[in-house]
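Zn(2)-C6 fungal-type domain-containing protein: structure tokens wanted.
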Amino acid sequence: PAETESNHAIAIPQSIPRTSSCSVGSESSSSSLGWVQYQVNDSTRRLVPSGAGSNSGRRQRGRIRALTQDQRKNAALMRVVKACSNCRRRKERCDPGIPCRSCIEHYKSDLVYHPCREKLLADLTMVFLSERTGWHPTARTLDSFLGRSDYTISGMTYTVPLSLGFGPYIHRTVHHVRPADSSALYHQHIIYDWPPRNSAGSSRTHAVFPAILTSTTSLKQDIDAHLSLLVTLHFRAFPLYCSSLRVLRDIYVLYKSLPATSSQILLQALKLLVLVHIGGDITTCATDPAVASIMTSAGLPLTDSTGAPVSPTPCFIRAQFGAVMPALAQELMRDILARLERLALSRQCAQWPVILSTFAVLLMIVESTQYHAAKIAYHARYDSGPAVAEREQERKVGRELDEQGVDALLNFYKACYGGCHARLREDWLGEEEEGVNGMGKGSAAERFVTAMRTAIRNANEGGYLKERGLMKIESSKGGFSCFFDRLLARL
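Answer:
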């Protein structure tokens, strides 16, 4: 019986040794079991795993509250623009900025060699200085003015003085142009007041100085050298827009105080501002002997009914200048933006005053191009372009592109120097005793920051900056003055 019982015994599998309830299993343990701690949910009174429905215990994964409006906007934009290739490769969090903050913080000055979304700051050149802006004189041929071959060009050369708005003359050699019809030497021009009072231009008839430049081979280099002269020695006469925000003088004082190695970017920016703002204001001196000789030979009067000298308009020469000015402006803008990107990505506090002043001048340049784009062309009578409605639509599209470019500039500035920019607040009290970080107390850079803070405070007293920053060109009724300080106020 005992043998029979053993043959029919139930086989019990070998059990796994029981461990203490307080022990923590190691990763090498072969057991797939684990301890889950439960607790009572306060709202449902049910047992739930610890951390679910409560702030205690392990942190719950996922979003715990609704996104804000800005977060929803950024999330929607990121679904469209996607993360940049740099962030995807490094598995970093990206943002819609170009460049994004992650790229700025990771690459610093080397970002120019690893462009975020394959774009550099210099790519904005054609946004701000495209042909649609019309800030420069229109390049025209003599045939467009006088008719095909209805003129002769004298082989004799004269050296005449030409003025670019202000400062000394630039002297160039010219040939006398003799049209078959002398009445072709009178043009109707669209003139606007400066400073701008309203948005209406007036039509006036002027005598044309009948001459063209003998050569334009070195004209671009000559204009560039003359702009350097105007900025370096004669900038005090620049016809700036007078407003409650007086900062251009402080920027120029900073430029003059900088060493040559640091002032080049500001020199280029101020040259471009001069070129864009007064590029079309080309005149000649009526009392110059060579000018008077050509005028007399063409049968044009030297004085008006009151005996005052008549200043002829060098329209043919102006058109030749207009053929080279766009290329010069684009070279200057590209150089400024490339220098600015390298300098700003270093994120050195000592460089902030130069960065700030350069951004301010760039915004003034964009404001000036928008002002010129809104005006009717000087020689509108000789244009055969699109109708008024089509031109207005082109201007609107152009302004929208400008706004996008300005937003890119401002976002780049904030990403690099948002902390430093807080020093311009009216209530800023930090670092007064030891001076601004990276700059000695009483230095030109520190004086510039103080002057900027004072200018902003003075402009804010009457709400001027807030009004300008919110101003829309389409809804403005203040004439052409609406173009100025509008972008600068956003900085």
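The first strand starts at residue 38 and ends at 40. The chain is about 40% helix and 10% strand.

Cheers.
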